[in-house]
Design goal:
Largest sheet of chain A: 6 strands, mixed
Low-confidence stretches of chain A: none
CATH superfamily of chain A: Immunoglobulins
Number of domains of chain B: 1
Order of helices and strands of chain A: EEEEEEEEEEE
Mean pLDDT of chain A: 94
Low-confidence stretches of chain B: none
Order of helices and strands of chain B: EEEEEEEEEEE
CATH class of chain B: Mainly Beta
CATH topology of chain B: Immunoglobulin-like
Structural class of chain B: mainly beta
Radius of gyration of chain B: 13 Å
Oligomer: heterodimer
CATH architecture of chain B: Sandwich
Number of helices of chain A: 0
Radius of gyration of chain A: 13 Å
Number of helices of chain B: 0
Largest interface: A-B, 22 and 20 residues
Number of strands of chain A: 11
CATH topology of chain A: Immunoglobulin-like
Largest sheet of chain B: 7 strands, mixed
Chain lengths: 112, 114
Amino acid sequence: QQQVKQSPQSLIVQKGGIPIINCAYENTAFDYFPWYQQFPGKGPALLIAIRPDVSEKKEGRFTISFNKSAKQFSLHIMDSQPGDSATYFCAARNGSNYQLIWGAGTKLIIKP
Amino acid sequence: DVKVTQSSRYLVKRTGEKVFLECVQDMDHENMFWYRQDPGLGLRLIYFSYDVKMKEKGDIPEGYSVSREKKERFSLILESASTNQTSMYLCASSLIGQGVGELFFGEGSRLTVL
């Protein structure tokens, strides 16, 4: 129940395409869903986040879609660029104990 | 510019050696974390601390200990390094409570145990 399942493990998309990374959870105590972006040789950094009372959030080319009834959320990258190539992690915060549960990560490659 | 600094980017140690990984944050955050990152396994929490001298076990604490003597500093200790502890170690900090969710990470310490 504490897991966050992330897919796919890796993804290759042509420049300009829309990569989609999916995450699913079971625990209804989760109250905050961030996405982190990690470039090679760097630590992860917060990219965008959503709360469960909102179905979609956009920040620039990055969009989170949230389906509370299905307990799923996804990251879409519009007009993807080679500079978006990175590992992306979804996560979920447990509102009861404020622990952050991580997905396994998706390695994204955007081909020029 | 806010920062989490990990003192060693790359370390090579021998089996049985004692290893210290140091982490310092300049954001006055209450929470500090040590994660281990391995391909295909994501980020796994080793230990975290929500206050000076306080520590809590994460998901994989075996073989590790931590020390937090000052608010800004959180150390990870491998008492007797083993080859299965070869990994990337990430330190992070956050505000307490609802601040967990926005973690600030260091650049990582890549440890190789021979």
